[in-house]
């Protein structure tokens, strides 16, 4: 029986997941934001973490890498309503072992849990075609774009990501070019329209 930590900022969702998980595993903690999630993971070192990726205080890249550092043996399943290829791909690039869309049936989550606990990095069929879609932005560019879209200057983004501000500016203009946009403000609008922030 695996130990599981669940995190979602909607209590009804986390309780529903807990009921499903408790049919075959032990839920040792439920959190409602990134801070609670990290504290629970540090305390319990669970076999599995099931987490929403759009909770308060949650930055996909930072939170996933922190989870992996805090409890290296834990497997991670991301739960999300986002099916944009950029977000799905980024989750796997940052270390997710599984990714389930919230509208998918419970059996898909149950299947993903078992596959991930068996050591697989599992992608449900519905997401395979999404993951194969061409996306022009790299994980590094997505990191930069998320911070820019939050209103941070290139200098502050550079500090957050431990890179030079020149690198930030280079990627910013590269993204504008790649996405066939005209300005930095269009780039920010694009990020918000794709719910990348």
TrEMBL record:
Residues 3-117 form the Response regulatory domain. The modification 4-aspartylphosphate is found at residue 52. SUPFAM superfamilies: C-terminal effector domain of the bipartite response regulators, CheY-like. Keywords: DNA-binding, Phosphoprotein, Transcription, Transcription regulation. InterPro entries: CheY-like_superfamily, NreC/VraR/RcsB-like_REC, Sig_transdc_resp-reg_C-effctor, Sig_transdc_resp-reg_receiver, Tscrpt_reg_LuxR_C, WalR-like. It holds the Pfam family GerE. The keyword Magnesium does not apply. Residues 130-195 form the HTH luxR-type domain. Gene3D superfamilies: 3.40.50.2300. This is Response regulator transcription factor. The lineage of its organism: Bacteria, Pseudomonadati, Pseudomonadota, Gammaproteobacteria, Vibrionales.
């Amino acid at each position: 029986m695996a130990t599981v930590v669940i995190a979602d900022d909607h209590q009804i969702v986390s309780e529903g997941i807990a009921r499903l998980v408790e049919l075959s595993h032990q839920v040792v903690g439920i959190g409602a934001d990134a801070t609670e999630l990290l504290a629970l993971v540090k305390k319990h070192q669970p076999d599995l973490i099931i987490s929403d990726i759009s909770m308060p205080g949650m930055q996909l890249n930072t939170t996933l890498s922190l989870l992996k550092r805090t409890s290296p043996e834990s497997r991670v399943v991301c739960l999300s309503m986002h099916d944009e290829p950029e977000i799905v791909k980024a989750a796997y690039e940052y270390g997710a072992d599984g990714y389930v869309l919230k509208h998918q049936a419970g059996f898909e989550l149950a299947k993903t849990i078992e596959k991930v606990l068996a050591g697989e990095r599992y992608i449900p069929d519905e997401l395979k075609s999404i993951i194969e879609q061409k996306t022009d932005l790299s994980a590094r560019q997505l990191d930069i774009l998320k911070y820019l879209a939050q209103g941070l200057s290139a200098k502050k983004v550079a500090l957050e990501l431990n890179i030079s501000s020149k690198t930030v500016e280079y990627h910013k203009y590269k993204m504008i070019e790649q996405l066939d946009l005209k300005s930095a403000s269009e780039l920010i609008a694009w990020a918000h329209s794709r719910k990348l922030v």
